[in-house]
Amino acid sequence: MRSCPSLTARLMTLALSVALVGAVVSPTFAVPTRAQALKLKRAGESDDGAAARLNEEGKKLVRKGKYYAALDRFHAALALFPISNAIFNVGSMLYTLKQYQEAFPYLEQTLRAPLAPEQRQVVLRYRADTLKFLKMTHAAIMVRTNPPGAKVLVNGKALPFPAPTRVLVRFGRSDVTAKYPGFSATTVVVKSSSAKPPKDIVVRMKREEPYAKVTVRCPKGADIFIDGRMSGFSEARTKLLMGNHVIRCGKTNHSQAFERKVDVLRRSDPSFSNTFDFSALKQ
Fold first, then answer.
1. Sheet (strand 201-204) strand order
2. Could you state, in order of their start, the residue ranges of all structural domains in the chain?
3. DSSP string spanning 49-65?
4. 39, pLDDT greater than 60
5. How far is CA 152 from the centre of its chain?
6. CATH class for domain 211-277?
7. Which end of the chain is less congested by CB atoms within 10 angstroms, N or C?
8. What element of type H or E holds 153?
9. Neighbours of 123 (CB within 10 A)
């Protein structure tokens, strides 16, 4: 996580600004996407340069009392480049707007940055206040994943930073889900109460089998062989390892036998399918 120049002065200035305000909770704030943030870049500006500028613009908006506009700028800055000052500023703004659950992960992440003692005291105070405001309904637990670096969702809502990370779970039941490329999404159910606080968890994920669904069509009545194994007649539906395979359509009264090499893929696009249709070939 990269820090901006003069981080101490900037963080303290913003902290003092927001401390003067008792904001009222407003409707849920829509976090800008990266595509939206890119529209705010100026010609020739790098991602980190644009992020630093947007972060400064956000701080000016704070001083004018335009807190949601400032939050928009801070979020846009993070969508372009993860500067630590913007991470704190998002957490600070959400805290000021009394969106404590949303503020918590940003305050936690800020504590991972190299902070001066006065910086750390500000962040720790905000974090302690957040936990105090939520103590009747939530508790914080550390979530670690195997492999580390997984995306974490609590009750279906994605958190902004990967594991290991400390998260808030609501008393009762909370579903903590971890997602990581190449591994099956895994959910751990956390049950707790104010009398029985939740414990830290480790979410262990299993590597996904590198298979994909495949449909093969040959001329009507033809035997279908996949990698030398008989798999059906006319049409076969099966699962194959991703990679290269050989499909052989047998001889019929209207077509000669033939072979084709195919490449089995797996993509996240739901419209994509591994369908190999040779039914019209008469070789």
1. 165-170, 138-146, 201-204
2. 1-134, 137-208, 211-277
3. HHHHHHHHHHHHHHHTT
4. yes
5. 7
6. mainly beta
7. C
8. strand 151-154
9. 23
| CATH number for the domain formed by residue range(s) 1-134 | 1.25.40
Q: Do the two domains 1-134 and 211-277 of this chain adopt the same fold?
A: no
Q: Is the pLDDT of residue 28 over 70?
A: no
Q: What is the pTM of this model?
A: 0.71
Listed residue (57, 101, 98) closest to 76, CA to CA:
57
Least confident of 106-120, 192-206, 265-279: 265-279
**137-208 maps to CATH 2.60.40.1120:** yes
In whole angstroms, give the CA distance from residue 271 to residue 248.
Answer: 26
What's the confidence (pLDDT) of residue 3? Answer: 42
Percent of the chain past pLDDT 70, that is, above it, reads: 89
Taking each helix axis from N to C end, the angle separating 84-96 and 47-63, rounded to the nearest 10 degrees, works out to: 30
> Average of pLDDT values for 91-100?
95
Which strand (E) or helix (H) includes residue 239? strand 235-241
Name the residue with tokens 């969508």. Answer: 79
Contact 262, 244 (CB under 8 A): yes
C-beta neighbour count of 58 within 10 angstroms: 26
DSSP state of 220: T
Half-sphere exposure of 226 (CA within 13 A, CB side): 23
- Please report, for residues 8, 95, 240, 281, the alpha-carbon distance to residue 106 in angstroms, rounded to integers and kept in the order given: 17, 10, 43, 59
Is there a contact between 177 and 201 (Cβ–Cβ < 8 Å)? no
Backbone phi and psi for residue 2, each to the nearest 5 degrees, phi listed first: -95, 135
What is the rounded distance in angstroms from the CA atom of residue 15 to the CA atom of residue 103?
A: 14
